[in-house]
Amino acid sequence: MPKFSAISRERLESCDPRLQAVFNEVVKYFDCAILEGHRGQALQDLYFRQMKSKIKWPNGEHNSIPSKAVDAMPFPVNWKDTNRLCYFAGFIVGIADHMGIKIRWGKDWDGDRDLNDQTFNDGPHFEVVD
């Protein structure tokens, strides 16, 4: 059974308990890496300048404590394998639905399951919806 590395576990611990619950269930079946949980101001400002984020500090879901967003990828991480990322995301959304936790994925912001109608794609991004 896969398990998180110490670094991934530490990053996940900075997240909302609902995200922790979802990803602790996901990793039992799908090996994955947590790339980022909480994001401080310096990094959020940098990502905004680099256009990796459309949100300024402190308005991002990664900026709250605990973080309401997590960036995760299937392990081993392969940025070019977008099909595997989509498969992974579907697994996460399915697990979250089964647990009664609403998750928004960064390649389907409007939640309509149409990935072709997005203007900003953030494949590794998952956020809990209140």
UniProtKB/TrEMBL annotation:
<dbReference type="InterPro" id="IPR009045">
    <property type="entry name" value="Zn_M74/Hedgehog-like"/>
</dbReference>
<protein>
    <submittedName>
        <fullName>Putative peptidase</fullName>
    </submittedName>
</protein>
